[in-house]
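Changelog entry: the DUF5683 domain-containing protein record was regenerated in this release. Current contents:
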Amino acid sequence: MFQRLSTSVLFVLGAALWATPSLAQTPPPPDEGTTPVKTAPTAEHDFPEAPKARLERAQKAFQDAEYDLLRPLLEPTLSPTSQFAQTESELEARTLLGVGLYFEAQKVTDAEQRRELLDTTRRHFLEILRKEPDHSLNPLLYPASVVELFEAVREENAEELDKIRAQRDDANGDVAAQGLKSIYIQREVDHRLYAANFLPFGLGQFQNGEQVQGTLFAGAQTAALGLNVASYVMIESLRGDDGYYDRGAGGTTEQALQWRTAQYVGLGLFVGFYAWSVIDALRDYEPYDVRIRSLDEPPPELSAGEADDKGATFQIGLGGLGVTW
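Regenerated structure tokens:
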């Protein structure tokens, strides 16, 4: 029996020694209360290079509530100096960057890091107010907490902002004083006659200030009327002393008929051009024409200190015809 017991003990010891290396290579279990840290893969974004394109991308990110993209998008465009040529773009970029920094500060647990992020946000908001002291954030567009922080920055720096406003008011006042100049405004009103639209020879067009149309209608009607009168004169010249044609020194009846046709054609053309001119004049007719011009010196009627009240006058000239008072 002793031999069997010894054999069993040796077998147990051998099995224990064989298992010892495997146990030694087994990693120790983690301490209680310790959570393994998982490292998130670094996100890579294909951001544009141009500042304007970055601002447009940031605006879209703001609309999509992707606040974590605002800082990497806009910080390179504002640090160390602004890369925006227009003030409006810079103000928009600083506002969105401030929003991104503010929300980033809400996520961090380290108090010192959170304070640095909020201080950077305040600096960007102060730069906005230094450029535009009366600038404000729309509470319907931006989060209420961001608007409150912006207004807090305004109150904290109220004295500095008041000085900036005063300096700008003084500068604007000096510029206005240096460029101050008296200007006299002369206003002339020409009242047009409605009856002039029915006058021949383009007078309706001349009244409306349409010199080219008036000249064309005047020339066409004059030529048509001239043809009518000339044809009548030729008909009468062909008539003999006895009042008949084809006798004595008079012309033939055929010639007289030809000239009578020309007479009717001239009359028809005159009536046609006259009707056309009336329609054209009525289409472009305006009851009055107002002319305003600036003068460096007072007009002659005011230089003597008295108003010139001559009443209504009827004028006809190259500029048209009408009644002025």
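The chain has eleven helices and four strands.
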